[in-house]
């Protein structure tokens, strides 16, 4: 006799057991994963499955196969599925963490690379500035030597003029004495016979004697003057020989100093070229903008426009990065802006008494505002000795270096605060566009052939010309 199975209590019916097992598995998965999103999704799925199962159990009779399936087996299979889901979620979470770590490492590597590039560029700029500063002393010594040569050349020219005048005076005096020299010689040898050679009245003889006496005194005075002129001429010749020897020594010193300055300037140019590709790009933009200019004023305007454009672009980049909460972009833009402000230069004081050291040896032949064919002069013009070196009148960066229109080789030196020196008429340049310089550093040399050359210097504040004399 088969004993009938007692009915399941309400608390342990199959449908209720399934729901309890599903809830337990869901809770265990949530505890293992600790992921709110996964738990919420699987909670909803578990709820739907539970509701569906409950509905099926209410409206459909259980089949004999389901009734004979052990509850323990169904629970084990559900646990295995849950464990598989947990492992998959763990793997996905681990992959996400690895991806985040990889991205963070890439960002850090990029930041380090950017910092290294900026540090290398800053180091190269500092090296270029150090080399430029080191060349100031040698350039100053060369400038002093060239100024001494210029002054000595002027002194030699003055001595030669005096020599020429003395020689001409002696020749004229000698020419005037030639007719009366035989008479003077005869009077000195035979005074009585000379006076009585021709019979004349006694009064005329006395008059002739007095005339000859006065002429003799005049000739004596003239002879003394000629002897003094001859002595002075001999002294001038001696002084001229000494000055020529001094000049030769100065020229030898100048040659050695000029070679040293050229080497130091070349090292500074090489260091600047190695600064950064960004600087090279900026140099190309500056050079191209200036070359396209139709006039000097147009060139200055284009340089100002490039500077303002760069600043506006940086401000827009900073604003966009801050709005997007991108700290790295903001930091890079701020650093670039600081670098731009740092490279802007000190500018020029509103009032300056000048240092008294002009940027080139020689003498001023035309000052600012002097009358010219095209109106008042907008700059200063110096007459320089051949091959004279030209020095930077301020610290700053080179906006342009090269040939420009009829100005010859020209340098536009940005002193900062919209002050720019324009130096034109050079024959050889020692700097490149975008190169950083210190005051007194070499810019180039004047023409070495011919007796002299002229250097034009102009100072601009924006589009206005300013008298450069107080700042030199």
Automatic annotation (TrEMBL):
Residues 49-68, 336-358 are annotated as: Disordered. The keyword Hydrolase applies. SUPFAM superfamilies: Duplicated hybrid motif. Keywords: Coiled coil, Hydrolase, Metal-binding, Metalloprotease, Protease, Zinc. Its cofactor is Zn(2+). It comes from the Bacteria. Residues 377-468 form the M23ase beta-sheet core domain. Residues 79-162, 286-331 form a coiled coil. Pfam families: Peptidase_M23. This is Peptidoglycan DD-metalloendopeptidase family protein.
